[in-house]
Design goal:
Number of strands: 23
Number of helices: 38
Helix content: 40-55%
Structural class: alpha/beta
Radius of gyration: 39 Å
Strand order of the largest sheet: 8-15-14-9-13-10
Oligomer: single chain
Length: 927
Amino acid sequence: MLSATVPIAPTPDFWQQAVRLLLREGQPLGQALHSQTQAGAALDFSGVQLMVPAFSHAQNFKAALARELRRPFIAPRINTLSGLLAMQVPGESAPPSESERLMQLYAQLREHGWLKKMFSARRNADLLPLAHTLLALSDELTLALLPEIRASAEGEQAAVGRWVQALAQLLEPLAPSAHGMLSDEAALVWQVWKTQLDANDRIVQRFDAMLALAERASLPLVWVSPTAPEPLDAAFLATYARHQPVRIVTLDWSRQAIAPLHPVYLAAWEELVAGDEGVPPTFLEPATLPDPVPANAPALSLPLLCPAPDLESAAVQSAQIVLRWLEQGKGEIAIVAQDRVTARRLRALLERAEVAVADETGWKLSTTRAAAALAAWNDLVSARGETNALLDLLKSPFVFPDDPDRADRVMRIEARLRRANIAGDWQALQSAFAQAEDGADLACITLLARQAARFGGRKTLAQWCDTQRALCQALGMENALRDDGAGEQCLLMLDDIAAGQGGLEDSFSFAEWRALLNLRLDATSYMPPIKDRRVVMLPLNGARLRRFDAVLVIGADAAHLPSPPQETLFFSNAVRRELNLVTRAERQRQQLRDLTELLCVNHEVVLCWQTHQDGEPNPVSPWIQRLELKLAQQGMAPLRNVHWQAPLRKLQAQRSSMPAPSAPELLPSSLSASGFGSFLACPYQFFAARMLRVAVMDELSDLPEKRDYGSWLHEILHRYHAHLREQATPLAARPALLASISEEVFQREMQRHPAALAFHARWQKVMPAYLLWANEREADGWQFVFGEQSQSQALSWQDGGIELYGRLDRVDQNAQGERALLDYKTRSVASLRQKVKEEDDHQLAFYGLLAGGAIEHAHYVALELGSDKKTGDAAAPDFLRKQDMLKQQITTTLHQVAQGAPLPANGIESVCQYCDMRGLCRKGAWL
């Protein structure tokens, strides 16, 4: 039978030309047309098989056929090759799933220690990406060489010869020292390919099904493709042509076809046609050559340029362009996403404007919220209960979705962990919530710890899937995932991995399971439901043989157009060329042809890109630069730039002023020393933090902070002095007692924070000096009474009052019954003596009020060594008078607040510099 090519130049009416040529006499559709002579009857073309690249092209063909015939007809049998193969009876043995295939190869690779050394793998799981790469190379080799191997008995030997020749070309320019490593890589790739090339290989089974389908051919075939057939497709068409006529409709990139229609593009991009490349002359049929170009052919529409200074500007400009096109009534708009980052931002802006974007490419499943929930759990298990990983998991909307108290519970858990600065560890997490008021918080942490324990040991893939599904049920994620499109796809992926285990009985660790799951989530595309197709987002090759009202190309810069090359292992261009694989030059030429077709077919195309990235210039694509140069050489107008501003809105300017709110009804019922200090520093800060209760979460730190050190010393000294009060201890035994208590506390803390060792060493230097001071104080007649005790005292005024509260570090008493308040500070005695001289220092006086005036003396106690290597204390002067003054100050000021006095943001700069409430008062906007 006859196999011939129908070449058509890239023009807006490609499908119309294709229909006209196929309706000519001697063509498949033409034969059906001329065999049906009854007037008025519906034309029947169902005796012709039409194969298109994608189902969207079927509508284009049928619309063109309807315009040409202008009468009822029965369309040809239109399908894609994959769709037609799916309709055939499946083979006796199904190919292994991708997960089984990948893990089978990985299980073999991890047995070879030299592979880990060659590819710098620190652990077995690091070889999983290598296995994935090797399978991709194996598939590529199969696609290129399988038809040649099947063609004759010498085919396999010819493939071996190609491989040897390719390797020789690779090694020839290299130093002999590099030959060994590359030879090992070559042997690895070759061996993997040979082991994959059997009857169970997915590509082999597909090729066998294609040949079987071609052998049963009963209808003439019209094969429509924008590119030349791949080796497997070419073998299928050759086999089909032995039984039925075959017509290959494709784009004609020969010089004689491009030059009359698009001379500017051909002059700028000569590589569109490599040498005499084009449609092979032996395949051309004189009867099918297109008509000469009419003299009144429309002028070529050149693209518009839209340079933008940064990512946000590029996204905003692109959104304005799309919105304007929609306002103009354009119903088919394409966004070609070369730069996926900018495209994601553009999509968000359009959705904010209530414009749906039909994404035909889809996004990696790993970028969805549902996949992030699974990844967050695996991160938590891998980090052994690390706090940030725990909070990331709990904040996922898929975790405990049915818990009515979920939001408050997550807030309580986060606040407690941040306040205690717990970095992680399941035991530490459970200990932190052992005394929690709400037992459900501890139950939540315990449930997570119990589930994490199930992710240990080694399991088969099916067992890992069961464990992951059991987790989803335990955390209430199952139904939430099923209600989400991406979540449902994640669950189906787990089911596929479990069902596709086949004969794979190897067991894998959690790290290996996690790496596999991440690879599968990355390799799987998520296609959100498409409800509105007015704006579609697609890759450049997705626009082949399609026409739109307008096209926006995002990422027309040198970094994205052409797409950066990706060479794998030692597969350089020389090797790829020798093995009949697609080279970098061929890939870039095809991408240039895709761009040229886009410009030729669509009359309105805008090319947008960022002119700067990360502070560096980002030039436009070299292809566009060459086009602009050619236009200038030929004296033609340059490409026009467009810049559309967002619609302007007039806003009423309002003068900013210092905020001074009044809220007597929000006056707190209790007041601490730090709270009153906040009021004195800035009344607005007090209003926001204490009255509105706006709080900033504490930052988690891997290292213990100074406040942690202070709390440890408070515990140590309280236990030490309480022991001395209860049991008489000789002076000689006291250093050992203090050291023993200190060691116990610091050993406990170093289990949680190893960095506490630095504070441990710091305290050991201070202990001798502190003991000397404490013993001298005891010799002066002062005895420890109590410490670390919470106190409160009511303070009232006319028609109101407030409760003062706080915690006293330590109270001593002498033989005369006088009491002294001691407050520990991790500062030197010199700085504390300066502190007590300051008039605005009210902390000791405040603590004195808590004791109801029963304390006559107050001291700051230094827990840091001074320049003289000593500690000491700083006594507060006029302590009783300061208590009376502070009591009067608190009563007067808070009474005024209760009466509605304003609370201005009048803090000084040293206060405002680190104030958490500055974002509320916005001091920089009005001062």
